[in-house]
Hints:
Helices cover 84% and strands 0% of the residues. The chain has helices at 10-33, 38-85. The mean pLDDT is 88.
Amino acid sequence: MKKKVYRNTAAFKLLAWGSFALFVILILIGLYTLKEPLMVKGYYLMGTVGVISSAFTIAKVTRDDQEDDERYNEMFRAVKQEDTEK
């Protein structure tokens, strides 16, 4: 039975999520202490949430494209190898 191998270590995952949480907290503190009307704070918060969700989406799409390319290349190599064996 094959053992499942993870690409990232637990320390790297902790660093990634920890830095994400830290910067979200810093943004929220900055918005809370901002001396502007609530409408301006809401605008900045909405923009920040949009940028964060877009970053996650871009990362997922990029990863999926890379995995699809790898899968396609493996299939192409298998088909090419079958053709050369005939």
